[in-house]
Amino acid sequence: MSEDGWTMNEVLSVALGIGLAAACGFRVFVPLLFVSIAAKAGKLNLVPSFQWMGTDTAMIAFAIATALEVGAYYIPWLDNFLDTIATPAAVVAGAVISASVFTGLDPFLRWTLAIIAGAGAAGAVQTASVVTRAASTASTGGFGNFMVATGELILSVVASFLAPLVALVLIVCLIVYISRKAYKRYKVAHPSQEAVTTTT
User: What is the Cα gyration radius of the chain?
Assistant: First the structure.
């Protein structure tokens, strides 16, 4: 980070990291495989301590893990069990993948952002995914989970390719959510002012 503030490259790297972390909430290993392939092809710069993610060994390992994860989610009832493992795994993956692309940042700031923003984004998306699957299981007896699994896979792939845009959408949604919460609390705390505004 420069003394005058954040550079455009640093802003983009943070947006990329948060977007990739969010993608981990849909599928843990798809974004990791994406990062490995992109780094291997020279299309993505990684933090020096994460250069191993761009090696052939890492790429093969992530490819196998991706295939096993994607396939497992199409097995009835096993998908719900996997959610209990995937939730903490997604949080860890979100922190790791975001830290790997937060280039140009001080190590302390990098890991602080990775843990708060990266892990937080992955955890939020994964939680929404678990809730969606539970609702599908309850309403369809698990037969609708095939469509849920397919949708999550597609979203994970798309989110990995459009990571900065995903980060922007998440930030906007967070701002809207916080603003609505703040406005509701304001209305509760100042009912008289609301009444005066209505009568006038």
Answer: 20
